[in-house]
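Section 3.1 - Work completed
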Amino acid sequence: MKTRIILAVMALMFASSVLAQENMEIKTVDFSVWPKGEFNSAYAQYFIGNSYLAPMDVQNSGLVNVTFEPGCRNNWHIHHKAVQVLICVAGRGWYQEWGKEAVEMTPGTVIAIPAEAKHWHGAAKDSWFQHLTYNTHMEEGWSNEWLEPVTDDVYGKLR
């Protein structure tokens, strides 16, 4: 409980500093519902901004809750020989497939990303964002290929 309170205070402090700097209202999420998790150090090199991982049922399904701070997004990437499923559980974010318009994600949005689709996902500029993710329809030899960062030009066009 004490850790959750500390994380909530840190989130509010961060949100307040961003608000003061950019004069925009930052939407927070309730980390008592879906845990924020630990800093995503294993994949930090593939993200712009900070993300956090909270494994939910790794032994059975690989289900992970991913939390993105406002403005955080992952690089373009491809899941080879596997479908990735995203389920937004809190906040507001974006999903975009290469060559297509970005799709806004709000709680309840579910996206099944086809195998071999180049894509990215992340938080809106003014909101924390949490989604559950897991892979399904995994074929032998499935893998994940990380590609180039999502440019500020691409990301900056989103509201």
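Second construct:
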Amino acid sequence: MILKKHLKKIVKATLVGTAFAALASTANADVTLRGASMFDDKHTFTKTMVKFNELVNKYYTGDVEFDLRLNGEFGVEKDYVTFLNQGVAIDYTILAPSNMARFAPSIPLMDMPFLFRDLDHWNAVLSSNILAPLEKELSDKADIVIIGYAGGGTRNLISRNKISNLDELSGHKMRVMGAPIQAQVFNAIGAAPSAIAYNEVYNAIQTGVVSGLENEAASIQNLKFYEVAPHVTKTAHTITVRPIVFSGKSFRKLPSELQDAIMKAGKEAGAYGRELESREDGIKLQQMADAGQIQVSEFANREKLLTMVKPVQDKFAASIGATELLSAIRSK
């Protein structure tokens, strides 16, 4: 699936069906930028990366070819992190912060459950430079550059059986992402979390290894988790932060003008992705409910969850030297 850029403001890549068709030109590109998405062309991550490609086309006068591979052709996000760190296979993608924890232990703070009060708070933080210390750590320790912030999905509990209160949540075996803070938070509210590879979650629920997971509507729909876990409990524990990232090794090889275009395009594509995903999240949840694929429940006394997790959040922030950063996020 190839996007080719040859003449600024004349040639634009367009999304057609499941392929990215390039407008033809006989000129050869000076640079090829390789992207990867775990999802198809309808997913907001993929749409955001297509927007990023278009914006680079807009801001850079040279010739660039974009090679964006979909549907997990290059594996899962943990694989992408390794590729980006090594500067091989791919140059850019969108990642969950927790999947970068093995290189930059502080980065999962971005993804910590119950971090944001609401969408306005989340957007205010991502539109500011509050997260700059985490960006620096990721660059220094993983050689991965954050060029923008997408995300905006509201993550809820997804389970085989209905969960609507603390009693029903107690002992619930659920998949969480690999960063320790994820397991710590869900342990604090009485669940029994396990870190399982994303591409193994469906089978793990089907075979009873776990009874559910936590995720946003787009992924439930795209990966059909509702087939094995049809109950969605509106805990709204996370509003996702999904950095658009670029390999530092790849980035440094590029002309300075292209580097500038990438940074500008990344910021704008992130804003586009945040608006798109936050808007589509509720729509997708309702679509699945209307189709009878999921049953949606509220969580009784959700406010108590916020109180239960605060000591865990504080302890984690202190352990990574981010107490002031956490305070800045909470007060934004």
